């Protein structure tokens, strides 16, 4: 730390992103990216747009929001776009949480929530998940805090039915409830259908997972026009050009080929079912995932050891060195071939460690 670093941030623990190794080709199952490339129209649109980079991007993302409005059945004024959903979440924390509206989220959930809370100096409560990693909606009903729920949750993959989300939104009428749906396209039901009934609901999503665009950084927020106007106040106070021209064009093109992405989600769901079955046959405990990853624990080999042995053999998964999570690994679902290689490799590793 330099002597110039503001004392405001002296105790900040930054988020640790998953490894993005550049030195070796891995089967990369560690950061929940899609194994499929973007649809063909995306590359063409980006190529064409690259000839206009001397001009600033459109801060309103008019075409992109119109495309989103059509796909999701919303008014464009109910939509804000962000530089990844991380940015939308940060804006939402800034806008809707403070000393009087402290945050509440699960103790095991997306690791960025406590970081955004700290950087914005917002008090927060971490509510423990149950022993089986499920979230008890009763813990959130009437908490009178700004609630953040990843649904499905990460890194567990578990999904909370929409009626439970609705109960939480309804019973915290004086606070915003943020539902982070980064993984919803892999088998969840979106809370977007509740938006016309609840002015305190903000739904956040991303193009990073189901739409194969993690590297483009494109996320979104859906809410009442007033909530979205508040988010725009913060966006225009930090970075109105948060969506660059290439990403904007890529997003528009991706929405025109939405069927391609939804078909890919079906393949991921099939591969997830296969992988879950294979891991369970090897004795693993695998939580029921509604995402593009599984959270799995071997009865035989520790989480860290398995992570390291897979890495040595060219397969990257994500290990969290944290209480309750240490024995598990979070494994992104890739192509069938990648999953076959994973299972073969895990079989070899576990055979070799048998007593
Ligand atoms: N929410 C959750 C639950 C996530 O796992 C992630 C991905 N790390 C994000 C939000 C952020 O994704 P992005 O910024 O790429 O849209």
Highlighted features:
355 residues, alpha/beta, Aspartate Aminotransferase, domain 1, Aspartate Aminotransferase, domain 2, seven-stranded mixed beta sheet, three-stranded antiparallel beta sheet, 12 strands, binds 4'-deoxy-4'-aminopyridoxal-5'-phosphate
List the helices and strands and how they pair.
Blueprint lengths: L26 E2 L11 H10 L12 H11 L6 E4 L1 H13 L6 E4 L5 H8 L4 E4 L18 E5 L11 H9 L6 E4 L20 E6 L12 E4 L2 H14 L6 H12 L1 H24 L3 E2 L6 E5 L5 H10 L2 E2 L11 E5 L3 H17 L3
Parallel strand pairs: 1-11, 3-4, 3-5, 5-6, 6-7
Antiparallel strand pairs: 2-8, 7-8, 9-10, 10-12
Computed CA radius of gyration, to the nearest angstrom: 21 Å
Largest sheet: 7 strands, mixed
Please tell me the total number of domains.
2
Give the low-confidence spans: none
Number of helices: 10
Strand order of the largest sheet: 2-8-7-6-5-3-4
The helix/strand class is alpha/beta
Order of helices and strands: EHHEHEHEEHEEEHHHEEHEEH
Oligomeric status: single chain
User: Would you tell me which CATH topology of the largest domain applies?
Assistant: Aspartate Aminotransferase, domain 2
> How much beta, percentage-wise?
5-15%
Q: Which molecules other than protein and nucleic acid are bound?
A: 4'-deoxy-4'-aminopyridoxal-5'-phosphate
User: How many strands in all?
Assistant: 12
Specify the CATH architecture of the largest domain. Answer: 3-Layer(aba) Sandwich
How many angstroms separate the termini? Answer: 48 Å
User: Can you tell me the CATH superfamily of the largest domain?
Assistant: Type I PLP-dependent aspartate aminotransferase-like (Major domain)
């Amino acid at each position: 730390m330099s002597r110039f670093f503001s004392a405001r941030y002296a105790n900040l623990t930054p988020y640790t992103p998953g490894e993005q190794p550049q030195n070796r080709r891995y089967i990369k199952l560690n950061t929940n990216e899609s194994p499929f490339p973007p649809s063909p129209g995306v590359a063409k649109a980006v190529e064409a747009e690259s000839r206009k980079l001397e001009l600033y991007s459109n801060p309103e993302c008019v075409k992109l929001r119109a495309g989103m409005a059509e796909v999701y059945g919303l008014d464009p004024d109910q939509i804000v776009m962000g530089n990844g959903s991380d940015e939308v979440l940060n804006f939402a924390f800034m806008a809707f949480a403070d000393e009087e509206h402290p945050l509440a989220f699960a103790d095991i959930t997306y690791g960025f929530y406590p970081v955004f809370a700290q950087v914005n100096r917002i008090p927060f409560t971490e509510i423990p998940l149950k022993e089986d990693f499920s979230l008890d909606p009763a813990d959130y009903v009437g908490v009178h805090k700004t609630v953040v729920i990843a649904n499905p949750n990460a890194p567990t993959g578990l999904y909370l039915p929409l009626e439970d989300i609705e109960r939480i939104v309804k019973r915290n009428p004086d606070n915003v409830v943020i539902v982070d749906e980064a993984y919803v396209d892999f088998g969840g039901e979106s809370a977007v259908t509740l938006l016309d009934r609840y002015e305190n609901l903000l739904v956040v999503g991303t193009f990073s997972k189901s739409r194969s665009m993690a590297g483009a950084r494109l996320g979104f927020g859906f809410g009442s026009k007033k909530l979205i106007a508040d988010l725009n106040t913060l966006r225009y106070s930090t970075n109105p050009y948060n969506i660059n021209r290439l990403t904007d064009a890529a997003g528009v093109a991706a929405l025109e080929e939405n069927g391609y992405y939804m078909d890919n989600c079906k393949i991921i769901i099939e591969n997830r079912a296969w992988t879950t079955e294979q891991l369970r046959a090897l004795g693993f405990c695998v939580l029921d995932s509604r995402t593009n990853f599984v959270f799995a624990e071997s009865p035989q080999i520790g989480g860290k050891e398995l992570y390291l042995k897979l890495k040595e053999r060219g397969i990257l998964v994500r290990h969290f060195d944290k209480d309750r999570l240490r024995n598990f690994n979070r494994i992104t679902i890739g192509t069938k071939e990648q999953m076959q290689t994973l299972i073969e490799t895990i079989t070899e590793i576990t055979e070799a460690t048998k007593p």
